[in-house]
Structure formats: structure tokens, C-alpha cells
Design brief:
44% of the residues lie in helices and 3% in strands. By secondary structure, the protein is an all-alpha fold. The protein has a two-stranded antiparallel sheet with strand order 1-2.
């Protein structure tokens, strides 16, 4: 069984995102992040929507960036939830985008684990329950930003 997605809508596609993880998330200086960075502030390594240190993240103290998995939340929020608009083009969207990203990332991680469990289960009551839960989560990620912001 895989512990990281390797394709499909639950895998990161950074080329279709807007660096939501590099801006919206907070980093605490640790063995995994060389710096402190508050949520909502761009990582100093961010250039455009890419990372200036991408090829040397581990060596430069950013192993957490290498290990991070958004489960496709970044591109979903940009391409689906906000229809291609970004916080950079419309700065007033930043707060809503970062909140939606956090919610969709958690929902998609749950979807990934449900899909992993489903591959292990034959048809039957448990399979139906897993499919039903996955369907509910798939519907939730398609909610508008104001609904995603309020999810707990």
C-alpha cells in the first residue's frame, strides 16, 4: 500500500497551484524548516510561484517542504474553488484561499486514506460505508469558499 499519492486528483500538481503551501502555511524553525515563517507571508525562497531552492531543499534545511503533501488541494483550490483566480492576481482573495486550502487539504487527505482502505476491502457493508464516506468528502471539497472556511 502506498503512503503518498502518485497521480490523479489527490496528488499535488504544483504547476496548477499558486504556491498556497509556501504562503498560506506557517513554518516553525526546526530540523525540517530552516526558518520561522508566519502563515500568510510568502516564504523568502518563493520566486513567482516556484521555489528558488527546489533542487537543494534538503541540503538547505527545508526537508519539510520535500515531505509535505497537499493531496491535490493546491490545484483544486486554485482551479476549481477559485476558477483560476489567485491571491497574487487578487490580493483580497488571500485569506479565503488559504482557509479553503487548509480545509481541502484535510478533506483530501481523508479521501486518500479512504481510497487506500477501499483497495483492501472486498465488496460488502464495509466497502459501501467507505464508498459513502468518500462520496461525502468528494462533495464537500466542491463547496464554495465561504463553506470551506467554516468547516471544522
Amino acid at each position: 500500500m502506498e503512503d503518498r499519492p502518485n497521480g490523479g486528483e489527490l496528488a499535488a500538481d504544483c504547476g496548477r497551484c499558486a504556491a498556497l503551501c509556501c504562503v498560506g502555511l506557517a513554518f516553525a524553525a526546526s530540523a525540517h524548516f530552516a526558518i520561522d515563517k508566519p502563515a500568510g507571508r510568502a516564504c523568502p525562497n518563493l520566486v513567482g510561484f516556484g521555489c528558488a531552492r527546489h533542487e537543494n531543499l534538503r541540503r538547505d534545511g527545508f526537508a519539510g517542504c520535500v515531505a509535505f503533501e497537499c493531496y491535490g488541494a493546491g490545484q483544486h483550490v486554485v482551479q476549481v474553488t477559485f476558477a483560476g483566480r489567485t491571491w497574487r492576481d487578487q490580493p483580497d482573495l488571500a485569506g479565503a484561499m488559504f482557509a479553503a486550502f487548509a480545509a481541502v487539504r484535510q478533506l483530501n487527505e481523508l479521501r486518500f486514506h479512504l481510497a487506500s482502505a477501499r483497495r483492501l476491502v472486498e465488496d460488502g457493508e464495509l466497502a459501501r460505508a467507505l464508498d459513502e464516506a468518500a462520496g461525502r468528502l468528494a462533495r464537500l471539497v466542491r463547496e464554495p469558499p465561504e463553506v470551506l472556511e467554516r468547516l471544522d
